[in-house]
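Working notes for the structural subgroup meeting. M.R. asked for a predicted model of this chain before we commit to crystallization trials. I am recording the input and output together here so anyone reviewing the notebook later can reproduce the run.

Input as submitted:
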Amino acid sequence: MPESHLPSGTVAFLFTDIEGSTRRWQTHGEVMGKAVARHDAMLRREIESRDGYVFKTVGDAFCAAFPTVSLALAAALASQRALAAEAWGELGALRARMAVHVGAAEEREADYFGPAVNRVARLLSSGHGGQVLLSHAAEELVRDNLAHDVLLRDLGEHRLKDLARPERIFQLISPDLPAEFPPLATLDHRPNNLPPQLTPFIGRDAEVAAICERIGRSDVRLVTLTGPGGTGKTRLSLQVAADSMDVFPDGVWLVGLEATTNQALVVTAIGQVLGVREDAGRSSFDALVEHLRTKQLLLVLDNFEQVADAAPLVVKLLLAAPGIKALVTSRIRLGIRGEYEVNVLPLGLPPRGRALPDPAELSRYEAVRLFVDRAEAAKAGFTLTPGNAAAVAQICADLDGLPLAIELAAARVKLLPPTALLARLGDRLKLLVGGGRDRPERQQTLRGAISWSHALLPEEERLLFARLAVFAGGCTLEAVEAVANPDGRLDVLADLGNLVDHSLVRQEVTEDDEPRFAMLATIREFAREKLKEASGGEAELTQMLHAEHYLALAESAELGLTGAERAVWMARLEAEHDNLRSALAWCEQTGEAETGLQLAASLWRFWWTRGHLSEGRAWLERAMESGTGATAKTRARALDGAGWLAMAQGEYDLAARLLEQALGLHKQRENRRGMASSLEKLGVVAMNRGDHEHSRRLFEESLTICRKLGEPHAVSSLLNSLGALSVIEARYPEAAGYFEESLDVSRRLGSSEMVALALGNLGETRQRQGDLERATALYREALQLHREVGNKGWIADVLANLGSATLSSGDTAQASEMLQEGLALFQEVGDRAGLSACLEGLAAVATLEGHPARAARLFGAAQAQRETIGIPVHPAYQADHDHRLAAIRDVLNQEDFALAWAAGRRLSSEAAVAEAIA
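Returned structure, recorded in token form:
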């Protein structure tokens, strides 16, 4: 069946698998392989001849979709008859169990998702080889259209392993097929006390399968599910227990310990669930062991954290009763022999920093599916739409994918639409209350879930927990010691380890094997409350220490960013960016103007390299406005940074004013290195404005100072600047000389960034001289180095040049790809000069591909951007620019050209980029 005609909406499903296949593969591997191939061919023939579509096969299991239940049932009956009629030789009869169900399902990329798919899988798992089972929904649709010799036997209501509502199950009866089978393998026919669940289990399919596989291994006796409150450990353990039912002949038994605070009562709680009677002549433990000694069962010990001291008792029990296993849920690991820990993570979220997928795609993410399911229950008619999808996705992200938090938030949809709910999440601990009254008290509010863990901490760990609230986006062990343990009285390693064990702090290992520690946002908000409640100015002191620590880091990084370890420092600042923002915000709010200005002045090079231009300018401008009393040294550094960021965004008049002020302060302090830096930046501004003579004087004056001071990094930079100016003036041999000297200095320095810059500039020189092959090789080498360093602006610059060279060689497709990537990066960093150049390059692509009207629009848009920021086309590039425009005019009449050009000029930069990439 073509994918365009796949069943959609309400779909009939047929799932099948072979009974006892694992054993047969082990004993008759080669024969079984041939038999399964015949089995597959039979089933596929019977399914596809009845308009069925096999959308998945796993081993010998088939998953098929049909437009109607009648067709699915007919395929099942025909398949069973074909399998029964086949001679299977030494294997004996090959029997397959089959299940049919119908329901709403979502088809994506030729696969199906939704509760109906899960339901038919559970129905299949309850059957036996040779048996065909139908759900009640399927039976209702097919019962009046059965063949005269076929009937459906009502097997009654059964609880399937999804723990949701019972299912009325029917068995297909045909005179030429077996009719008698053992009892269905449902929860009703296995000893257990698993409670029915009123809501469906959503997501975590991979986790359930992995935990079931582990708990089923002969060498595993104890698995502990750990995680913070609200991650869904209990619900996950129940699903694992249900799915593991067949492994334990004596059943699976839930022992809830939420009301047990005395470790001595754990044995009593287990005994009560299993119905063990205590005798006067023996202890409760001995009675329990006697009951369990010959049993094969699974104990689910839920909420073990508050009786953690009873962990040795679990070991004794497992040793005394070799047939039992334990699945434990706890906010802390038990820390005993034979324990396998599984950290239960939050639900899957849409990736951050990317375009939001459409609602259908968004529903693939577990957190979003859970929100939508619970919101539908809270408000009839609620659906995920293009209008609310962004808000729902952001709600799930802000709540860290925590199931409890998402369920509490979804319940609020009855009163607050997603957009209004999102706006109120800033105070989530107050907002997210009112969980179901059937829940334990600790799960009726988000605060209650976190308080439950917090109450288990000793005083020293509570103090560290509160202090950790000042960190945003995680922190290093070094930062914890400096900020949260200034007097050295805390045992940070031990206390931090216990907070990790209690699932209140997450530990992550970075690429350089250095651990980072972070809190989920919901837990951090609770910790902030505790920090504010602390006495003795605790919050103010901790915030001050935080700002001082990150100022020291930023100042060290400022020096490191000009050395051989630039990439290392850049990565470190990126990892700490949220902490740096937090420190800057605190300085703004508390009037710590000097500290804030010093911090902002130390970060401008990082902001420029990583493309955080607008953000960096905003921090610098606010810090300069409030820090009017700062020292001349700090203010000059800030002006230098603000001027450079303004220049990078094409605001040359503002950049010149800021840099002139910085130069004046450097002269006032007789700071020759600072003077040289400001002079170079002013030279770049003059060059971009087209004032080449003034630019050269500024560069040469700065170069003279730097040579005298013995500043090789600055010398390399200035040689590149002088070479760039020579390229613009079409003095190519002179430019190559500057770049070669810069390359030599940079390589001796070990500066990958400066090497990449010189290589890219040499590439442009060779391109201008007509050597496209050499130019392309130099560009690619430079691009690789720039990508390693991560300077988005220079990556975009090389991509623009590489795209231009590729276009000159006639490869419009590859040129377009490079120019579009460069355009997106220029837009991201706010570089409108680079954006204009990429628009012009893509206009040239459009011309060569036969789209002159599109080319004229893009040229018009580029020209409007140039006029906005006041930069003309450089003389060196003017001939190419004019040639490309002439090529468009040759194929468009004057009126069409004027209309397209004017339409392009009216486009905003965002609209122009969108059109260029479309």
